[in-house]
Fold:
Amino acid sequence: MNPKRYLPILQWLPGYGRATLTSDLLAAVIVTVMLIPQSLAYAMLAGLPPEVGLYASIAPLVIYAVFGTSRTLAVGPVAVVSLMTAAAVGQIAPQGTPEYLGAALVLALMSGLILTLMGVARLGFLANFLSHPVISGFITASGLIIAASQLKHVLGVEASGHNLLELLVGLAGSLGQVSAPTLVIGLCVLVFLYAARRWLKPGLRRAGVSERPADMLTKAAPILAVAVTTLTTWGFGLDARGVAVVGSVPAGLPPLTLPGFDSGLWSQLFVAALLISIVGFVESVSVGQTLAAKRRQRIDPDQELVGLGTSNIAASLTGGMPVTGGFARSVVNFDAGAETPAAGAFTAVGIAVAAMLLTPLIAYLPIATLAATIIVAVLSLVDLPAIKRTWAYSRGDFAAMLATIIVTLVVGVESGIMAGVGLSRIPRCACTWPR
Structure:
C-alpha cells in the first residue's frame, strides 16, 4: 500500500521550501480577507449564527490540506450548499433554535460520511453522473433564488419562501414596510461591490498599481464595505432606527461538538445529505480539474471524495456547517499564487485569529451589508447565455438544463436537482430532435 495515495500531503510536504512557503502565505492572506465576510454571509444564508461560517472555515481547511489532492482548491461554506442546507434543515426546526443548529451539524456529518464512504468505494466516476448543463442550470437557478432571498434584508422587510415565486410574492406584499436607512445601506453596498468587481482592478492597473496589489485591493472591497457600514451604523445609532445588525458574536476558537444520533432525524435528512454531497463533489471536482489543468497537474476524484468527506466531518465536530470547494475563492487562491494545500491551512489560521480577536467588532455590522455581499457574489454565477449555447449543440442537454432551471425556480432546490439528474440520464436519442 502506497501511503502517498491515501495521504496526498506526503506528495508535496517533503519538498516544501521557502519560496513555496512565501507563495502560500501571500495567497492565504488574500483568501482570508475574502473569506471572512463570505463566511459570515453564507452562515446567514443557511439560517445559522454568523460565527458558524467562521468555524466552518477553520478545521475543514486543515483537514483538506492532509487528504485533498488539488493544490489550489479552497474549501469552506459556499452559496449553493448554504441554500440547500437552509432548505433541508428548515423542514426540521425553526431558525434560531438549538434544534436547527443541531440538525445542521448532523447534515454536515452525514454528508461527510457519505462522501468518505464513496471515496473508499472508489466512486469518483460519479462526477460524471450530473452533466455540466444540469449543474450549470442548477447553479444559475439557485443563484437567482439566493439573490431574491437576500432582497428582504436589503429592504429591511420580512418575507419568506422556498422558491422564486414564493419569495417574490412575499417581497411584493412587504413593500409598504421598507426601512429607508436599511435600503440606503443595502443599495450603497450593492453599487460599491458591483463597481469594485467590474472596474476597480482595471482602474488601479491604469493608475500604475502592479497586478498582485491591484488584485488584492479588489478582493478586499467587501472588507471595506463591512468596515464602513459597521462604523456608520455604530456612529449614528442606526440600529435604533430599524437597521438590523449581526449583534453579539462569541469570540474564540471553534467548540468541539458532537452531532446527535437520532435515527429519525438522520432518516429525514438523508436525501438532503446525499444531494448536498453530490452537488458539492461535482462542483469541487469541476473547479479542481479546471485549475489543475492550467498547471498541468491532476487530481484524483476518488481521493477528493475522501478529502471533502473528512472536511465535512471536521466541520460537524467543530460547530460548523456543510462545506465544499468554492469556485470564487479557489480561483482567487490560484491567481494569488498558491502552490500547495498548505495555503488553505494558513488561511485557516487567519480565520481562527479573526474568530478570536475580530468578532466583537462586528456587533454593529448591518445584515444588509452581508446580504449585498451574497447578491453580488451569486449573481456572478448566473449564466443565462449558457441556455442558448446549450440549445445550439445539444437538444437533450438543453431539455435537461431548462427543466432543472424551471423546477428549481418554481418548486425548490431539491426537486430541481433531482429533475436534472433524471433527465440527464435519459438516452440522447430519446430527447434529441433534428435541427
Observations:
- The chain has a mean pLDDT of 89.
